[in-house]
């Protein structure tokens, strides 16, 4: 894990002091509202429906037990006793008092955390695979590359006022994508070329919101040392040509669409040729410096699938189910990757209480080398658990409500904060998630259905990624009433696709029944162990439409 040096720490401390001054002057009436707005946004503070929201950065989702305890203490002392893990690996507080934000930021800085660049039109948190560094199928550990991007982008003077926010995601597993790189402004796939050299396949112009677009390839292979200069070139072109007259047309996806990816590529290449051998070209020493923070821990030599684990699974069906669903293979023999679920029935997806956060910190220290990861699906991961201790860990996780064995299943939903918090919402999201959790809580049925992504957004802004849900739910407003529109066939993975709208929207009460009809249709249509997405792609949209709305005459 990257550990701050004295410069990082000083930078952060000074930023907190600076913001404290700005806040004091704002409260004194010396800084007008409109001038304070960009200052608070630069420090991760939104003002939403009822209270401010503070978004705290978790670089590429990696943090430690001490940081988790600090988040818990903030939830307890400054919020309503809980926090919310978001789809971009960050964490949010929904109820801090504005005037207390400098104190919160100071507490965060004491454990090397901050809210810098978590909002505003700048380069946001770079995200990656939550299994980075421990999954056997990755080409290399993507986290050092994310860290390099973090160090380059944080406080980058040229990119502090882009036309809109800018999101980069990195993936290093061939054929699998847990970071949704195709729906990011820039998606980076770490690849090897035919000569076996390490580099990147770069996608550009993906994104959701009111114009959802899958990113296009702008470069099939970029050498390892050219990462930053090439990113620089893309973002410069965006900074120069991106629209600033209309917020809804300002993302890079609109520029790429307007220019065409070939023209975009020409512009970027021309810019890149000018700067590619400049001071941002990565040297081996710099790559080594950052990589040295992500070394393989001192794993023990352990037996794979030990007898004690097999025995526990044989004796305890609930444990066996959790292992099958929430535990993933680790590259090191005798170890496992454990997913802690934040999708308990009756809980808003991604929400976690201060007590649970403390418990997770304890679990991380006791079972997983003190580290935690947050995931795009709004769950948490303990990445280095000895298989022989899984049963013990499961019991503790279960007693803290963190072991719902549904990872990747219907009720492991992504859900935006929606109308309960967000001023932009057309409809609430959380009650829909809850109604679906309550209706579909039969574990046998959920396991029989297999992997399904159900994503919910409360409006077109698509924070809940509904376009890339196999089943997407979008809150819409009809003459002041809340309704929900369904789309099917979306997918955020390696073969990403955007969902297609099923038909007219439904009232909230009808939603569980509508989802039931869609699921019944899938069960009736599926063959040979197909997933929901495979069945949808094979059987086609009309079959599902008719199952929900009846046959058209
Ligand atoms: C106060 C209102 C809002 C709330 C509470 C909210 C909440 C969220 C959350 C929790 C995330 C994941 C964030 C992260 O970790 O970086 C997110 C992402 C996102 N937000 Fe929002 N958001 C709000 C306003 C907006 C607005 C105004 C837009 C667009 C105009 C927007 C568009 C998106 C999109 C498109 C994503 C994710 C998909 C992507 O990155 O392309 N949100 N939002
Ligand atoms: S999708 Fe809409 S309702 Fe949901 S958090 Fe984003 S802006 Fe708010």
UniProtKB/TrEMBL annotation:
This is Sulfite reductase. InterPro entries: NIR_SIR_4Fe-4S, NiRdtase/SiRdtase_haem-b_fer, Nit/Sulf_reduc_fer-like_dom_sf, NO2/SO3_Rdtase_4Fe4S_dom, NO2/SO3_Rdtase_4Fe4S_sf. GO terms for molecular function: 4 iron, 4 sulfur cluster binding; heme binding; metal ion binding; oxidoreductase activity. Residues 53-110, 349-398 form the Nitrite/Sulfite reductase ferredoxin-like domain. Keywords: 4Fe-4S, Heme, Iron, Iron-sulfur, Metal-binding, Oxidoreductase. Residues 119-274, 413-548 form the Nitrite/sulphite reductase 4Fe-4S domain. It comes from the Bacteria. SUPFAM superfamilies: Nitrite and sulphite reductase 4Fe-4S domain-like (SSF56014), Nitrite/Sulfite reductase N-terminal domain-like (SSF55124). It comes from Bacterioplanes sanyensis.
């Amino acid at each position: 894990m990257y550990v701050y040096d004295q410069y990082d720490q000083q930078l952060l401390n000074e930023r907190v002091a600076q913001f404290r001054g700005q806040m004091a002057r704002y409260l004194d009436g010396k800084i007008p509202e409109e001038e304070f707005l960009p200052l608070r946004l630069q420090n991760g503070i939104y003002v939403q429906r009822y209270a401010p929201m503070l978004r705290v950065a978790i670089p590429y989702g990696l943090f430690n037990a001490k940081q988790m305890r600090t988040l818990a203490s903030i939830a307890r002392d400054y919020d309503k006793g809980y926090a919310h893990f978001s789809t971009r690996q960050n964490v949010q507080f929904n109820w801090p008092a504005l005037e207390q934000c400098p104190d919160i930021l100071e507490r965060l800085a004491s454990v090397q955390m901050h809210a810098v660049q978590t909002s505003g039109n700048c380069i946001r948190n770079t995200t990656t695979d939550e299994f980075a560094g421990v999954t056997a199928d990755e080409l290399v550990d993507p986290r050092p590359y994310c860290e390099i991007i973090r160090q380059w982008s944080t406080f980058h003077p040229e990119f502090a006022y882009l036309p809109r926010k800018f999101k980069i995601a990195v993936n290093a597993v061939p054929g699998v994508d847990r970071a949704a790189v195709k729906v990011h402004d820039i998606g980076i796939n770490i690849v090897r070329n035919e000569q076996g050299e390490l580099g990147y396949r770069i996608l550009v112009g993906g994104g959701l919101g009111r114009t959802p677009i899958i990113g296009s390839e702008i470069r099939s292979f970029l050498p390892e040392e050219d990462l930053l200069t090439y990113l620089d070139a893309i973002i410069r072109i965006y900074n120069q040509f991106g629209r600033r007259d209309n917020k809804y047309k300002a993302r890079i996806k609109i520029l790429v669409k307007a220019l065409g990816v070939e023209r975009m590529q020409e512009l970027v290449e021309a810019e890149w040729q000018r700067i590619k051998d400049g001071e941002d070209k990565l040297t081996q020493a710099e790559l080594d410096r950052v990589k040295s923070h992500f070394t393989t821990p001192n794993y023990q030599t352990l037996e794979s699938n030990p007898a004690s684990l097999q025995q526990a699974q044989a004796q305890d069906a609930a444990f066996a189910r959790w292992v099958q669903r929430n535990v993933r293979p680790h590259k090191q023999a005798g170890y496992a990757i454990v997913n802690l679920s934040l999708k308990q029935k009756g809980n808003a997806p991604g929400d976690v209480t201060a007590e649970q956060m403390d418990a997770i910190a304890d679990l991380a220290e006791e079972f997983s080398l003190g580290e935690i990861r947050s995931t795009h699906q709004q769950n948490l991961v303990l990445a280095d658990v000895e298989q022989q201790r899984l049963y013990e860990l499961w019991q503790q996780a279960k007693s803290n409500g963190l072991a719902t064995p549904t990872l990747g299943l219907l009720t492991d939903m992504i859900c935006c904060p929606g109308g309960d918090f967000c001023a932009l919402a057309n409809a609430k999201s959380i009650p829909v998630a809850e109604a679906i959790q309550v209706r579909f809580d039969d574990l046998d049925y959920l396991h029989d259905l297999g992997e399904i992504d159900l994503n919910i957004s409360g409006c077109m802004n698509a924070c809940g990624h509904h376009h890339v849900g196999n089943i997407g739910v979008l809150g819409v407003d009809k003459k002041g009433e809340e309704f929900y529109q369904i789309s099917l066939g979306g997918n955020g993975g390696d073969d990403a696709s955007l969902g297609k709208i099923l038909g007219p929207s439904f009232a909230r009460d009808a939603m569980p029944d509508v989802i039931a009809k869609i699921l019944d249709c899938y069960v009736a249509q599926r063959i040979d162990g197909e997933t929901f997405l495979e069945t949808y792609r094979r059987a086609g949209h009309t079959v599902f439409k008719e199952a929900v709305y009846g046959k058209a005459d």
